[in-house]
């Protein structure tokens, strides 16, 4: 809704007739920031159809924001499906899963049939419309529910809350209501936490909520605009090794010496303890310049983040503000540094650093970064975390070497974290937003049947806690609805457009009457309406919009005598309003209605600037939308792989009920009775260049001039077990052999570890799984 964009530049306060005492008074609803004038303009615009450049640009931006909100929800659901299948499909293929669990996995891969299933009847739809209006407009109910559900239930509820109930991620009213819910949840978290050190750190529904919030469109847009260029410029340097762990540096050093000379001197034994590696002068000489470079890179990241403070989404900053406020209230003796550590724990630990460590998951880069830059990004994130959140070197003593970065930037970081909290509250504007919502005719949410029924079910489970009083609105609605319907099969889980309205709130029919109060007179209403019509006329007749000063009387006359019926009605209406205002002494015809003339001119300048901002925001969000769609395609490709695996399982299971191998490697204890139980399959031979071409090799430490002599042999001695052997032409024995269990690869994939390290080469885990599937799934 375009009318929800509120700014401090809404215009000066209402003028008054001579002798009036109410010129600067505000309604009870608003502070100085939100004048009645702005409120009227916002409401009046809702029913006006304008077709100027600004209106068209705003419509494009609204449509784009709507698509981003919708696509974000789809990605959230797909990511959850992929996580679930990562953890379950191994059991399925190894035949360690019950029949109902197999059915659940199969249903996760089914496409939704929008023409199947039954809709709730009209009476029930009306009850749900009332219930979800209440949940959306009174966030305390959802806040309480989020604290009551279990960790296993929170993701499904968060999907409904973050992407459905408050799913319009760029609509101010829904954003403010969602933040109000956050405040309630955070307040309860602070009340129930006894130890300062454990605040917001455990894996709880609250922490999951905070992380999920950062994945909404505005958060993703910020991360892309601030971090993408910085990360992409770093990962271009694939060979830049900034490892500072002495043990790893020592191992890499002796490996290089052995490759160059063919032997290792006795003074450099393998398998030394960390303290011996750290004491080695050559290791120290390698690490020192790396420390300098790491601190330089971390400083550029920090500077970029600090400089971006004004573009941090309002909601992220507001949550930081609540953390500071609640901490000060509960722990008045807490130092500023301690409070900043909590703010940093949210802003960096749950928002910034995950995007730095796994930029591919946040759609900031194409593909997975190579080994060395990936390690550098991890170290940068550790440095920022140690700076923002009390350093902990218990497990990684080598990070102590980077302490100068922490000491140098500690004050700067705390200033930034405190500055993040300096944002205004929105309670007055939320009251206005709620008021405006009552004049909307199209308040609705897009919700699936299972989201509807799951939320209903959770509310029923906790009804006595959420609404113990029989007269409470929530209790009345739940009593009327009765028990929640069962979840429908996935293929019948259609989306419905659910209108939202309340039996206890009366929609606003007449704006002027609704605005009337002790401090808003009919003259005020007339003035606001006249100004609004003049702005509409100028937007409808752009050839007049740039003329200064604006001749209001001539503009009204031109509209009233035009050939456009709509302009004629507006022209006649505004002429009548000017006459009434002139007679009342609010404006003066003799000076050309100067006070209104100035305000209309100022509004047109503001709208011109608004158009530029809308166009710039649209360009920025188009990039975000493309990235979100690309991520959606990637997730869908993963699900397609799972469908292929599942199909293979079904085929082989129908022949034999034996045990299987793993994802993409469907195996049974014997394809035919005559076949040996554990037939060795392979070897299958691949060259280094073949693996590179297929993208299976992510990174290679093999010198360029030796790669043509390298090849791989892959065998499967038993179901679910594989051997990758790295060979050099002319040598009988392999240089390296690695035994792989399918469970290990599945675990890596589930944990988003895309790399399989074979010492000399690093392989892509999903592509290795796909290769195993292709080689072995139909051969057992």
From TrEMBL:
Disordered: annotated segments: 1-25
Coiled coil feature spans: 47-74
Example of a GO biological process term: negative regulation of Ras protein signal transduction
Molecular function terms, GO-annotated: GTPase activator activity
CC annotations in GO: cell cortex
Keyword annotations of the record: Coiled coil
InterPro entries from the UniProt entry: RasGAP_C, RasGAP_CS, RasGAP_dom, Rho_GTPase_activation_prot
Domain named Ras-GAP: residues: 173-389
Name of the protein: Ras-GAP domain-containing protein
Organism: Kwoniella newhampshirensis
Lineage: Eukaryota, Fungi, Dikarya, Basidiomycota, Agaricomycotina
């Amino acid at each position: 809704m375009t009318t929800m964009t509120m700014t401090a530049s809404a215009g000066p306060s209402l003028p008054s007739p001579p002798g009036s005492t109410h010129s600067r008074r505000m309604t009870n609803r608003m502070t100085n920031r939100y004048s009645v004038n702005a409120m009227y303009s916002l409401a009046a615009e809702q029913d006006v159809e304008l077709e100027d450049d600004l209106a068209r640009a705003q419509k494009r931006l609204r449509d784009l924001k709507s698509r981003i909100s919708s696509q974000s929800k789809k990605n959230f659901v797909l990511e959850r499906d992929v996580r679930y299948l990562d953890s379950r499909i191994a059991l399925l293929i190894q035949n360690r899963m019950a029949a109902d669990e197999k059915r659940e996995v199969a249903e996760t891969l089914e496409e939704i049939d929008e023409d199947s299933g039954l809709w709730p009847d009209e009476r029930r739809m009306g009850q749900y419309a009332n219930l979800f209006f209440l949940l959306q407009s009174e966030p305390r109910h959802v806040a309480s529910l989020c604290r009551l559900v279990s960790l296993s239930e929170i993701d499904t509820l968060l999907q409904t809350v973050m992407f459905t109930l408050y799913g319009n991620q760029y609509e101010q009213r829904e954003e403010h209501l969602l933040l109000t819910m956050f405040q309630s949840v955070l307040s309860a978290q602070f009340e129930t936490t006894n130890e300062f050190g454990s605040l917001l750190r455990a894996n709880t529904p609250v922490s999951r909520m905070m992380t999920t919030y950062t994945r909404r469109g505005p958060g993703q847009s910020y991360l892309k605009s601030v971090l993408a260029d910085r990360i992409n410029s770093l990962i271009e340097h694939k060979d830049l090794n900034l490892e500072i762990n002495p043990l790893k540096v020592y191992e890499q050093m002796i490996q290089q010496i052995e490759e160059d000379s063919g032997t290792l001197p006795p003074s450099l034994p393998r398998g030394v303890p960390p303290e011996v590696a750290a004491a080695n002068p050559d290791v120290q000489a390698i690490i020192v310049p790396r420390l300098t470079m790491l601190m330089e890179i971390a400083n550029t990241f920090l500077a970029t983040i600090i400089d971006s403070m004004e573009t941090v989404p309002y909601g992220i900053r507001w949550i930081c503000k609540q953390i500071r406020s609640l901490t000060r209230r509960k722990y008045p003796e807490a130092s500023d540094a301690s409070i900043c550590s909590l703010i940093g724990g949210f802003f960096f630990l749950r928002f910034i650093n995950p995007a730095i460590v796994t930029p591919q998951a946040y759609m900031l880069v194409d593909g997975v970064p190579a080994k060395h830059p990936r390690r550098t990004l991890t170290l940068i994130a550790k440095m920022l975390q140690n700076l923002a959140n009390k350093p902990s070197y218990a497990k990684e003593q080598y990070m102590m070497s980077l302490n100068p970065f922490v000491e140098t930037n500690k004050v700067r970081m705390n200033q930034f974290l405190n500055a993040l909290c300096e944002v205004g509250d929105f309670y007055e504007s939320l009251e206005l937003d709620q008021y405006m919502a009552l004049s909307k005719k199209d308040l609705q949410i897009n919700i699936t049947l299972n989201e509807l029924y799951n939320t209903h079910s959770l509310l029923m489970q906790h009804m006595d806690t959420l609404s113990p009083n029989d007269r409470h609105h929530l209790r009345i609605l739940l009593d009327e609805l009765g028990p929640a319907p069962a979840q429908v099969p996935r293929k019948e889980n259609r989306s419905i457009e659910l209108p939202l309205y309340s039996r206890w709130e009366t929609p606003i029919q007449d704006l002027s009457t609704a605005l009337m109060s002790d401090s808003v007179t009919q003259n005020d209403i007339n003035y606001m309406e006249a100004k609004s019509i003049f702005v509409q006329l100028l937007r409808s007749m752009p050839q007049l919009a740039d003329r200064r000063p604006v001749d209001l009387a001539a503009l009204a006359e031109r509209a009233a005598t035009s050939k456009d019926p709509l302009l004629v009605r507006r022209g006649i209406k505004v002429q009548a309003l000017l006459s009434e205002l002139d007679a009342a002494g609010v404006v003066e015809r003799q000076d050309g209605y100067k006070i209104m003339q100035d305000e209309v001119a100022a509004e047109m300048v503001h709208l011109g600037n608004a158009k530029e901002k809308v166009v710039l925001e649209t360009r920025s969000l188009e990039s975000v939308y493309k990235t979100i769609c690309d991520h959606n395609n990637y997730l869908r490709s993963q699900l397609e792989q799972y469908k292929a695996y599942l199909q293979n399982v079904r085929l082989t299971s129908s022949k034999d009920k034996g045990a299987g191998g793993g994802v993409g490697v469907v195996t049974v204890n014997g394809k035919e009775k005559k076949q040996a139980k554990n037939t060795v399959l392979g070897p299958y031979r691949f060259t280094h260049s073949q693996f590179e071409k297929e993208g299976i090799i992510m990174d290679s430490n093999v010198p360029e001039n030796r790669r043509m002599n390298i090849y791989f042999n892959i065998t499967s001695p038993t179901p679910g077990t594989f051997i990758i052997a790295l060979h050099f032409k002319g040598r009988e024995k392999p240089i390296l052999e690695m035994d792989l269990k399918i469970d290990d690869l599945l675990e890596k994939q589930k944990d988003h570890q895309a790399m399989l390290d074979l010492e000399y080469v690093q392989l892509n885990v999903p592509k290795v799984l796909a290769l195993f599937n292709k080689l072995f799934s139909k051969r057992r």
